[in-house]
Amino acid sequence: MKSIQGRTAVITGAASGFGLEVAKVAASEGMRVVLADVEVKALEEAELLVRALGAETLAVRTDVSQAASVEALASATLERFGAPHFVFNNAGVGAGGLIWENSAADWEWVFGVNVMGVAHGVRVFTPMMLKAASEDASYEGHITNTASMAGLQSAPAVGVYNASKCAVVGLTETLFHDLSLVTTQIGVSLLCPGMVPTGIERSERNRHTTASLPLTMSQQVAKYMSTQAMRAAKTSASDVALMVMQALRDKQFYVITHPKALQSVQMRMEDILQGRSPTDPFAQYPGVREQLRAALNPP
Ligand SMILES: NC(=O)c1ccc[n+]([C@@H]2O[C@H](COP(=O)([O-])OP(=O)(O)OC[C@H]3O[C@@H](n4cnc5c(N)ncnc54)[C@H](O)[C@@H]3O)[C@@H](O)[C@H]2O)c1
To answer: Residue 67: inside a domain, yes or no?
Structure first.
């Protein structure tokens, strides 16, 4: 997208983490910002922050897992600002543990937000953007979907999350190909972050529709280990926001925040090409597998 000033951004998961940081950068670059999030109080605070940067804002309480809620977000956006130029389908939640220990409710919750949230965003906003493009040759749009490095490799003890993010990778690569059949006016990016400190470790705070059970031992271990990894992370959510906005300008598809992690993606691809069983994705981080195994098999 060549010109950002005065354009409209719609951001889901805008009350925290990457969504909030992207909202702040978008506002400081002169965009109008629609903030969507399920957490009401945090959403109100985020809107005040973003408005203080000089942006015109609209905050819409949205549960991205619900079709009607995303449709209402789109209607409110259209009514206030017209068709958006940048849609950031970013809201997401995390859950871990040995894959057979996740309950049906865990799967429904994580897939509801991480997969159906992105699907609803694409389903509802893309036709609005295509219509705007067909009516105005100068219209430029961009859709960025948040997956994760977990969508490109399969680390142990976060299976439900990995599976949801693989779905977002497939969905977004297909969106890129499908859009290229019908327009050159709408770009697509796939954000694949590594570990970054945000509110994701407290995802349960927004789990209202499906009951969460007490965490199993493997779920506690997975949570502890990912919290430790996040605390040690050097990349911040604001660094990621700058990458997201640069990719929007450059029409860059893959946005990889932790390029070192691509080593294990390459290894996975080689495993597939050579017909081998999967290599340990933690191989480049000595001790992690041993720590996980020890925690899961106490003496
Ligand atoms: N932080 C990381 O290390 C990391 C790594 C890879 C991918 N991601 C992905 O980044 C995205 C943003 O997460 P984050 O790390 O900024 O976490 P975060 O918890 O700080 O922000 C996520 C936001 O999504 C909102 N949300 C949760 N459920 C929702 C729902 N049903 N409808 C609407 N909003 C909802 C939350 O209220 C929160 O404001 C997620 O898709 C996550 O999976 C994060």
So the answer is: yes
